[in-house]
Amino acid sequence: MAAYENRNAMIDHSRSNRPSWLRSLADSDVAVGWLFTLPFLVLWVWWFLYPFAQSFLRSFQDVSFTALNDATFIGLQNYIQILNDPEFYQAVLHSLQLVVIAVPVQTLLGLLMAVLVNQKMKGQGIFRTVFFIPYITSQIAVTTVFMMLFKKGTFVTKFFTLFGFEDVTWFADTRYALLFVSILFIFQQCGFSMIVYLSGLQEIPRDLYEAGQMDGASKWAQFRYITLPSLKPVTFFVVSVATLLGFQIYDQIAAISRYGALGSPAGATSTVVTYFYQHGIRYMNIGYGSAAVVLFFFIIMFITFLQKKWLGDKE
Amino acid sequence: MQANKRFTQLLHYIVVLLLALVFFLPFAYTLYTSFVTMQDVNKLAGMPHWTIDNYKLFFTNDAYNVPKWFLNTVIMTGLVIIGSLIINPMAGFALAKLEFAGKRLIFWIVVATMMVPYQMILIPVYVNMAQIGWLNTFAALTVPFLYQCLYIFMMRQFFISVPNEFIEAARLDGLTKMGSFWRIVYPLAKSPLITMSILAFAGTWNSYLIPSTLANNPDQYVLVVGLNSVKDMFFENTPLIMAGVVLSTLPILIFFFLFQKQYVEGISSSGIKG
Amino acid sequence: MSKMKRLTVFMLVSLLLLVTACGKDNGGGIPAADKDESQEKATVTMGFWGTAQDLKIYQDAAASISDQYPNLELKIKQYPSSEQFWNVLPGEIAAGVAPDFIKISNEGAYEYINKGLFTSLDELIAPSDVDMNRFAASSADIWKVDDKLYGIPNLTMPSMFFINADMWKEAGLGEYPQTWDEVEAAAKKLTKDDVYGITINIDAYHITNYVKSYGGGWGNGKTINSAENVQALQKIFDMYKEGVAVTPKALGYGWDGEVFANGKAAMTTGGYWYKGYLKDANPNLNYVALPVPKGTVNGGTMISDAYVVLKDAKNKEAALKAAYYLTNDKTQTEFLKLGFNSAVTSLSAKYFEENPEFKAVEKALDYSTDFAYPAETKKFIDELVKQLEAAILGGTSQSPQQLLDGIQQQFQ
């Protein structure tokens, strides 16, 4: 409590003589709640809801690429067509596979790295920076480099033969390509999770550990019973963000498919976003592409809802 | 006991070093590639083959106005970060600590917004921008991005951990809820705010899709878009692209290195305690 | 006020000021034509993506356009990439800020023409004083759909076949091959260790060349599973099965040019732009460029660039004049030096003097033809590549006939 009292002493009491209605407004949850969310809501309605509503409407239309305003209403036809397209299910499946592989691994790795570089050590700043580098380097550049590393005969693919993989060019093999994309995603997303966890670790009250030490708890017990529970809200954030970003992964796949069709090889890396991109933008069928995103939107919403339940996020 | 501690420490170093090696490798390769000619891409060439021509080109060719692009990027990133530091924590706090009708709805708005790939709304955004004459202005690159749902969500998750008694105590001392946010909670949320700034900095600085669409005039290019315009019609000059990547990544690297020092175990956390 | 609060207010205010200032400051997005309404001069914008060298040539041309057309002003609008251009075009058209004309390759043009993106030029030719006789008929024909002209040709060049001359000599092979059968036989001798006889990029451009040399073609979607096409595909499959061919991807390369430059394959199909790449990627490489080998007939694809006027261009006649101006001898000569063969007949001979390594390909100008992809070009290309990748990289057991039948079904 000592630190809190310090802060408290700094509070300036001179202005408590403001009009009382203003004061009670500033103390009301409803007023402050709406006031604090207002800037966000204004910008959101203007620059998200309005354009999104336009796109949403297109999902019920047959839209000409060259004349966006010249559209015909076709009801649910786009949706029906998508639900009858086996490629859509394949794309959904790939997206789910990617997330199921990548999210747990990147979460654990991010936490591990945060714990490692949170402890005092020589070169701490350098190591933190190094772990963060993949996140800030352009995704296309990292993909290009990974493509140089994961080709047949390099030390990387040879190393993976120890785990039963064949020595082939990973992104050219229909069995390994999606795993390759998952590895890329894990690699880049770890740095993000690390620094979120790093600041999460700063927020854990020191005296909890002090109390733990007095009780003679081992390092592991402290981690298990103090650190992990305290990081629960942060973990919910890290997991759901990784899930969302995993579902939206695009640049890496586009880079692999640069000289072929999106989702190369042979559609092994097609995801819902590449499906949207291919139909909505490449084939210029914007209504159809929008419908795919809307459908997928509900799938992710459902998953996030479940995650919120499982990870016990309180409100 | 002493030996055991030594061993743990050694193990710690070995694990960190190994991980660092893996995580640095791709950047090292990027760095290397940026210093060779196209002939040596995909091969390991010795020092005598290295060249700084790739970098030189960016600063000598008239088509590449790197200083201007750099300035554009600084302005864009700066404005977005300032906005983020105000709007996101405010909304995050409201969602974490205040009880009001509509709160659940707003929370799900935040979450749902993150799920929509930006490509889907890019064309309507573009048309709306054009209608109000914002294309190729900083307004286009910043105003819609002054808030980010990702960081509102993040700030909410951090503020949830702030004990309620803490705000109550501040109110007993004569502060309103609003006041307790600005004067107690906000200043003490230093490390989440730094995290947000770092992430917002990296995200904005590196963004390509949005600036290349909303500001596609060479004078208004931001660094990443400008450096990417070196692509040839038919093939890629990989070393040149990598030199561009290094040039655009370095500022974020420096920014991060300077700010990560703020994560110091046991100091910044002295405030928020139960 | 507390320091924190003051700082926040200050930041908010300065942010608002900056943002409003930026918003008003520069109306760069407003089409220039609106501002010039009072004047007689017409402003035309050309949309462009490409290298800095190309940009320089276009800017020089824009600077001198008033010599010939005093009432024209030409603006060059550069896009970061072609992908970026197509991403943003629908928005630009809806907002009325799209360029008036663009340069485009015939590989994807049929789809856009079919979707009504470009203006047919026939009625504008006479009033704009455009002399179509300056261009080779073969290239102008490529830009005709249903007898309507859609483009002013800028470049025309047949595709070709590249051989690593040193490897050829080393293997003790004599005359260069004229047919795919000879190529196949040579590839067997050229394959050793980690070098493959030929790299066949699973890409519509390359596949189309094989198909055409067997007298086949896509027929705009009508003849996808023709016997000739099946025969061509069979040849590709054979070379893979024998282990003398490799996809760039399987070796970890992006495209066949890289495989060829790095000496991992001795032969590949290609185009005029390989020259610039090979010069940078491997200046010591000795290569020869030949016409695409025969399957059963002389055949291959013709690559052609043209300037097309967008349907929504405000002043179509002015746009056509500006486009035509870009085919002037001086500008075309500049491009010629960069390795682009001009569609202007009188300049074409000079091209083969400037680029002697392509001399052998000159005769292919007579018989090479347009790609003739289905109207849903991108969808077709993606499907073709996907199915071929599944067969060659994924090991599905589809025969060429089954594969093409499957695609034909989707494109009636």
UniProtKB/TrEMBL annotation, chain A:
Residue spans crossing the bilayer: 30-49, 96-117, 129-150, 176-198, 234-250, 256-277, 286-306
Record membrane topology: Multi-pass membrane protein
Keyword Electron transport: no
Primary location: membrane
Chain ranges of the ABC transmembrane type-1 domain: 92-307
Signal sequence, start to end: none
UniProt-listed Pfam families: BPD_transp_1 (PF00528)
Compartment(s) of residence: Cell membrane
Protein family: Belongs to the binding-protein-dependent transport system permease family.
Name assigned to this protein: Sugar ABC transporter permease
Upper taxonomic lineage: Bacteria, Bacillati, Bacillota, Bacilli, Bacillales
TrEMBL record, chain B:
Segments passing through the bilayer: 12-32, 69-93, 105-127, 133-153, 184-205, 240-259
Location (main, coarse): membrane
UniProt keywords, alphabetically: Cell membrane, Membrane, Transmembrane, Transmembrane helix, Transport
Gene3D superfamilies given in the database record: MetI-like (1.10.3720.10)
Location(s), subcellular: Cell membrane
Coiled-coil zones: none
Protein's membrane topology: Multi-pass membrane protein
All residue ranges annotated as the ABC transmembrane type-1 domain in the record: 70-259
Listed InterPro entries: MetI-like (IPR000515), MetI-like_sf (IPR035906)
Similarity annotation: Belongs to the binding-protein-dependent transport system permease family.
Protein name: Carbohydrate ABC transporter permease
Originating species: Paenibacillus profundus
Automatic annotation (TrEMBL), chain C:
Signal peptide: 1-21
Gene3D superfamilies named among the record's database cross-references: Periplasmic binding protein-like II
Keyword Ribosomal protein annotated: no
InterPro entries named in the record: SBP
One Pfam family recorded for the sequence: SBP_bac_1
UniProt keyword list: Signal, Transport
Entry's family note: Belongs to the bacterial solute-binding protein 1 family.
Name of the protein: Sugar ABC transporter substrate-binding protein
